[in-house]
Amino acid sequence: MLQLPKQVTIREVGPRDGLQNQSEEVATADKVEWINRLSETGLRYIEISSFVHPKWIPQLKDAREVAGAIRRDPGVTYAALVPNRKGLGAAIEKNVDEVSVFMSASETHNQKNINKSITETYPVLEEVVQEAKQAGKTVRGYVSTVFGCPYEGDIDPEAVFRVSERLLEMGIDELSLGDTIGVADPKQVDEFLTAMSGRLPFSRTAMHFHNTSGMALANVLVSLNHGITIFDSSLGGLGGCPYAEGASGNLATDDLVHMLSRMGIETGIDEEKLADAAAYIQEKVHGELPSHRVQIANRKGG
Amino acid sequence: MLQLPKQVTIREVGPRDGLQNQSEEVATADKVEWINRLSETGLRYIEISSFVHPKWIPQLKDAREVAGAIRRDPGVTYAALVPNRKGLGAAIEKNVDEVSVFMSASETHNQKNINKSITETYPVLEEVVQEAKQAGKTVRGYVSTVFGCPYEGDIDPEAVFRVSERLLEMGIDELSLGDTIGVADPKQVDEFLTAMSGRLPFSRTAMHFHNTSGMALANVLVSLNHGITIFDSSLGGLGGCPYAEGASGNLATDDLVHMLSRMGIETGIDEEKLADAAAYIQEKVHGELPSHRVQIANRKGG
Question: In the beta sheet, which residues pair with residue B7?
């Protein structure tokens, strides 16, 4: 009864979305080494950092150094978040392959996160997208709080559609729809994607789930069943959203790849190399990583 | 696109399947108090213990004491596992409402777990089922290693069907199909249930998933979509299978109820009372319980 695709593309967001929420500092050299190891797993996309002001996210203040030091695999797209033209300038200077802009489907979350209303955010992002395109970069657009907001609660799917449509009109190449606080349930995802079918370009729409309540893989399954083939995830389940209470736990790349592999869906990723890269970053951060793969490996003493 | 039922029945197996794998001893009085608290959550079925020889499962050696001491809520079915006529005798003497027999779809797992071949097991269970029925008890039949065996690997769905059919012919009232080592993936569950549709009585078939690799809720979702409405789970995710490496983690009742509740599916269970009962047993066992609900509560300092 399930309709499943043959192939799935994974966007590894751990070095950015994972590390930005770590309480302890990870050395620049360790980030570089981790990204180099991720490049060898078969992943074709790595979001390496965020060119935001260090005041906002001190954990990623070394974005320039990281971008300058990593080895570039020609088959891998190295991407970074940019909040504005200044960040874009730095990203271009450091020659990242793709930049990501971001905003929220929730007015309050957008205001608290970006310090602007949704309407005020559009022209800022439009300029960034245009300049990025002129510089020959592809652009990704993140929409957050798609399935719920820590301040506003439920979010109208039409609000998500309006923001997504504007980003697509600006010329983004890929849309990423984020369950920022990890509240999405499979029925909600099913209804949302049913409502968006034929209106959003699913072939270049990624789903970005958090595993806060353990439903991320179920939500992935529903999305696959709707023809979505791009997913964001963070190796080991590193990270989450620091602004939302109890919202830890990005969907773990290793758990996602394991499920897809079990179902015969190709990702091009080597699970053993992925486990090695997870073990590497496990040593650099405080506490056991939440992914099931890491926990199974730790129990085996591996 | 999802077809979801309006109601789901949950079989709480924590006091048996959860506690049987605890390395530290939980006092009989604490088990009794936990079961009494579970009775107040809205759960309508609690598997309280196993009447097996203490040599096999020393953690449950107090099955008689537990069965004798718990408060009986007339709306709750109190069940227990029985491996043979001797166990059944004790269960009848202690007046449990329902007994469960068990065997494996894997020849090797059955041999190692029950010390008999599958063929040798049938007459033993047949006698137990008949005697239980004569004593006015309902009977549940567990089939283990349905989606994979630690010794044999893949299990032919037809082997599962043959064992299930025999148990149904003996007169069991409900069948429970167990993913003993937690390897089932959603595609496998989908294909299995498609193959069993119209052959097994889904209205009295329960699925028993483990969350070893984080796929349990996705597997539940697929099962719901096939019309399965009975699920086994263990509060807090307590327990697993001690005989299978890396197979910790029963599906957590609290996470299951949370997902079902978010999807508007009724279980009759009060999530707050469930959280209280989870917090109670959390204090009696070593280490943090794996359920997402418990972990969110712990992070909030609740």
Answer: B266
